[in-house]
């Protein structure tokens, strides 16, 4: 029986096919430490200790794209969008910035949108974008690219797409919006554009004081694999800013390229469903008066 998701063999001591990863906080003898924690006594890429607050990089195996070795030891990520004061007070759309952390609160990556001012403020949340994902040396290890398309969930030519490159210039996967009338649906595809996972969101994106969950399943939708959740961050922040927090969970032994593509899905979902345009913020604020 084939695995419900692509598995990786990037690190020694990883769970074997059919096995279970060790419980969180209980390292397996001879295996990796608990997910999300830095590996002790491992050299850092480029030499020296990582900056304060950053996760220490494990040594990367030969078949792991450079920069993705962090993901071999992680089964959970927190994607936290940084709140820009000028955007909150003026509605002027700035380039989005994100911190990507592990379960210990250590930074794993920084992500920065690279879009021109005209595109940001004319196209709003429907804009095409490039996002650079960088490590603690400010080296770009992933590149995410969303082309410009009309927003429609029913017309095939308008379905959204995100290309994930790791390292930049090498495609490792795609996130494709699937045709759906009620529930938001996406496909996680590999570099050959073959579907390996599916994402299904709720029919309603409004969940007052609660998280909004997108379930990740196997390609045939028979097995639960992971989850992407938009986390509630407080009434004022939800209404007056577009700074969002997301949690991502996936199996520890999942292939790092698939993990990277799942991470890319967070940004596409954020822009499509949770990125407020200036008019939306003013309209929601007026409802509170």
Automatic annotation (TrEMBL):
Its cofactor is Ca(2+). Residues 18-37 have a biased composition (Pro residues). Keywords: Calcium, Lipoprotein, Palmitate. It comes from the Eukaryota. Residues 1-58 are annotated as: Disordered. Pfam families: Scramblase. Signal peptide: none annotated. InterPro entries: Scramblase (IPR005552), Tubby-like_C (IPR025659). Belongs to the phospholipid scramblase family. May mediate accelerated ATP-independent bidirectional transbilayer migration of phospholipids upon binding calcium ions that results in a loss of phospholipid asymmetry in the plasma membrane. This is Phospholipid scramblase. It comes from Batillaria attramentaria.
């Amino acid at each position: 029986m084939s695995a419900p998701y692509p598995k990786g063999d990037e690190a020694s001591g990883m769970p074997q096919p059919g096995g279970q990863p060790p419980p969180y906080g209980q390292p397996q003898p001879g295996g990796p430490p608990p997910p999300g924690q830095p590996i002790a006594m491992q050299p850092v890429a480029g030499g020296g200790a990582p900056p304060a607050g950053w996760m220490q990089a494990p040594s990367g195996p030969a078949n792991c794209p450079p920069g993705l070795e962090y993901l071999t030891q992680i089964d959970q990520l927190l994607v936290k969008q940084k709140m820009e004061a000028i955007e909150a007070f003026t509605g002027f759309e700035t380039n989005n910035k994100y911190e990507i952390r592990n379960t210990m609160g250590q930074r794993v990556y920084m992500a920065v949108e690279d879009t021109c001012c005209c595109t940001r403020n004319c196209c709003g949340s429907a804009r095409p974008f490039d996002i650079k994902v960088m490590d603690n040396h400010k080296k770009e290890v992933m590149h995410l690219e969303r082309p410009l398309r009309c927003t429609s969930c029913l017309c095939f030519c308008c379905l959204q797409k995100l290309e994930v490159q790791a390292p930049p210039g090498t495609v490792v996967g795609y996130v494709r919006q699937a045709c759906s009338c009620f529930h938001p649906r996406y496909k996680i595809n590999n570099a050959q554009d073959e579907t390996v996972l599916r994402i299904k969101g709720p029919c309603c994106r409004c969940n007052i004081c609660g998280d909004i969950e997108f379930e990740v399943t196997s390609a045939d939708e028979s097995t639960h694999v992971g989850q992407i959740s938009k986390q509630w961050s407080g009434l004022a922040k939800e209404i007056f800013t577009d700074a969002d927090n997301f949690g991502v969970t996936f199996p520890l032994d999942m292939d790092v390229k698939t993990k990277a593509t799942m991470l890319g899905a967070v940004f596409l979902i954020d822009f499509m469903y949770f990125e407020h345009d200036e008019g939306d913020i003013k309209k929601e604020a007026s409802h509170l008066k």
